[in-house]
Amino acid sequence: MDVLACAALTTALGAYGYTRLTNAGAALVIGTMLILSVPLRRVLRRRELRIGDTGLAAGSVGYGVLVGGTSGSGVILLSLLVAAGLEGAAVIATDAMISLGTGLIKISVFGLAGAVTAQVLAFALLVGAIAIPGAFLAKAFVERMPIHIHTAILDVAVITGGLVMISAAARQLVA
């Protein structure tokens, strides 16, 4: 939980900064982060980066800003946790707890900033309700799929999503 403690303030600051963006600005930031996350993940994995407690704390502060103001920054958290020496289920469990904490911070900031309407909340609950059974279905597929195929599919999906968001932002800025 040291990661969450180090990332808490910067998560709130990143989330507040996100509320100040226009729709096009938000789409541009998120789309860019998604696209950059693919090569970043590959570089960090290839370098087999290892960090201690101080490096983890420093990385967590930077991660907080990114997770507060973007989506798709989970790859950075996973890379930090692996670089700190966590493996397997410990990475997944720690990531889940940190993500829950940063998510609560973000929704609090968004709520205080007036960005959470009843419609936004209803949509979030609908997405969450669909995502839970979808996660179990995805797990069944992934267990039968070679890791390199799974990784390639995710990379294509993430890059495509980023390009769609940047394209939408560009259309909004031009119009």
Strand segment count:
0
In DSSP terms (H or I, runs of 4 or more residues), the helix count works out at 7
Given the C-alpha coordinates, what overall shape results?
globular
Residue stretches low in confidence (pLDDT < 50, at least 5 long) are none
The overall pLDDT, averaged over residues, is 84
First-last Cα distance:
45 Å
* Rg, alpha carbons: 17 Å
Helix content: over 70%
Summary keywords:
mainly alpha, about 180 residues, globular, about 0% strand
Give an overview of the whole structure.
There is one protein chain. With 175 residues, the chain is an all-alpha fold. The protein has one domain. The chain is 85% helix and 0% strand. The protein is built from seven helices and no strands. The chain has helices at 2-19, 23-47, 53-69, 74-83, 88-112, 118-143, 147-174. Helix 3 packs antiparallel against helix 4 (74-83). The termini are far apart. 23% of the residues are buried. The mean pLDDT is 84.
